[in-house]
Structure prediction request, 800 residues.
Amino acid sequence: MNRTIVIFFLACFCCGCEQWRVVSAVPEANQVIVVNAALSPQNTTTSIYVGRGERDFGKLQSSSALAIAEAEVFLTTGQSKKKLNFDPQTKLYQVSQNEFAVEAGKKYILEITVGKQKVKAECKIPEAISTPAFEARQSGRFIRSSVSWQATQANQAFMLEGYSFYRNEGVPVTTVANWDFDAADLLLSKEAGQLFSQSNEIRLNIERALPPTIDVVAEITQYDDNAVKYLSSVRNSLDSPQMSLGFFDRFSSPTIRYSNIQNGLGIMVGYNRYVVRQNIPISR
Amino acid sequence: ISARRTNLDPVLELFNSPNQTFRYRFYDLNAKISLQLNPKNKIYISGFTGDDDLRIRDQALNANFRVNNQSQLRWGNTTGTINWFSILKQDLTASTTLTYTNYNSRLGDATTRTPTNGEALNISSSFSSGINDLTLKSNFTKNTRTNRQQDFGIFVSRRVFTPNVFSAQNVSTTPDTINTQRFGTFEAGVFYGEKWTLTPRVKLTYGLRYTLLGVEGKTYQMLEPRASVAYQWNENNIFKLALDRTTQSVNLLQSSGFGLSTDLYIPATAMLRPQISNQISLGYETSLHQRQLNLTVESYLKRQEHLLNFREGVSLFFIGDDPKAFDWERNLAAGQGLLYGFEIGLRKPHGKLTGWLGYTWAKAIVRFAELNNGLPFYPFQDRRHDVSGVASYKIGRRLQLSANWVLTTGHPITLPLGYYFAGFNPAALSPVNYYGSRNFSRMPTYHRLDVSLEIFPKRIKKWSGTWEFGLFNAYNRRNAFNAYVQIANNREGSTLDVAYSYLLPMIPSITYHFKF
Prediction:
């Protein structure tokens, strides 16, 4: 019986040590490879950031200072594979659209090797959205314009990143709304066919000579699933005031930022941007 | 009747630092009366009320601003019980109990941020949680034969939950916001259980409980079967096996931030289903050293469904102008849990030296689709090792020396382990905290020794008294109460440090118990 008890206690001790195996599975921040890539047909050059994390808060580094120059970076779509070169100026791995085209509807795989560490990620560029429609109405000195579009399927994400009025080609009357990046403005479709509509308004300065027409330009960006999850985690962390502005919210749950980088951190997304333009005649 | 009132402020004052001060006080009041109506009927009436109050005040300095923070944690409980015990027949007894419970907790937080150049900004928030419970239960016990005992009965329960949040900000453009939610639940059920000594070596225990839960117009049916068997191998060795399924209509939510724990009791609702647990346990009991020592070993495996946790980024003190943002029901994620472990207990019930030693190894893992990127993590309740020991030594007839020692490894918390850069535009990335994984870090191990010396003076007529000289936390261990993150500026730039708050240092006490 005594021997049984000794064996039992030894088994207990081994089980107790088991926790360290699980806990040690998380690497230190400076051992983690960080990758950020956003692929779009509208970008003339595809740029990818490859870097490391930093564990020492005492040394607040820039992203460039943590960039890795000696990585091997490959982008693949279908049968086409391209190695990206490191640009010492921007500290990014780059390839131009002419050399490696990013197209709507295609899936892209990113493979990166740094020494013995390998990371991988993939994304799909969203297909075109259904034709956006403009509606504009002038009432005295005010022009109210709205743009609307439909989601082709559920769980799509859009963001209206620009909505501007132009006197004529390239000369802005006023940029009433030029959306900064804010996850709170993310529009998520619950079902296929869901209609989105955003509007904007300008006040015309009648003291100045009015142009015969005004251009209204809206920039709509459609993101893939990874971007939706990432932006949702950004939005969650924005909900939490912890650590921001010196407020220590003792009661909030920290947010883990979403990542689709296998064996690493960061995010790889695909997006497609649409610029919609309409010419509105001005009545005097 | 008994009453206690504590004021630890003078003691805590000795251990407070210039940047952080603690205050803690509590009281409780107990009363009990029993009435023997006749040889077959007896009534017990008891009541309890208690209240705890903890206040933390701290400040943090930065190159750009100074932050002063005050937090208050207050919780109290009031209960009243009336029990009527009746012998209906020689082999049938009835026990009917009416219980009223009122639990309230309140958390308050006030922060003032004063920039070096600018106007101070005050933000104050408070949060309260309450449960009102009225339960009537009748329990009948019947001994049909010498080797069988049956327990059966009915119960009805009415609970009202009030998880409220209030937030205020002194910026004139932002109005004060308040969100008051009130949930009423109604539970009714029947239960039946039986203890059956099948053979002198085999004992069976089994039962079934059926409950109807009504909340927000929705009705849940909950069936809870249980069964266990105990087999006496020989005079010294007993083996046990038990299976049971439990459902829980009240959920305890605890935040897993790096700060204070927020205990919020919420009911199952039309949106949130009751929690279900299935457990299997194995046990073993034996006697050692000519029955001087009793050894018990028990292992268990439990699977939980419909667990609830706060969604990432959720703070009960959310500052904003959208009352819906305070809606806790929409700020929760549902998941599953797996718990397993074993407990060993060694007891010495006889002799001059008595006591017991217990060790528990436990592991809890949970998985929520919406948390931690869908990966499993350790919940707040996961404490890997728990050791506790109690020993009493009699020195003659009038003295007894006692010691109580506890050790618990720290619970998981989420602390930043570093930072990295992320974003969609590789040329303009933002720094993001690196946590490794949710609840990756652990609070420091908690351990404490309490010792006491009891003196039993001679009894004088009906008066008997006992003096007790105690020392709580005898070796003045600085056990961390909560962790928080400090941002401080130095020559090298901003640093992020994890700091801990400590509570309850070594506290001597003198107690005199008396009976007359």
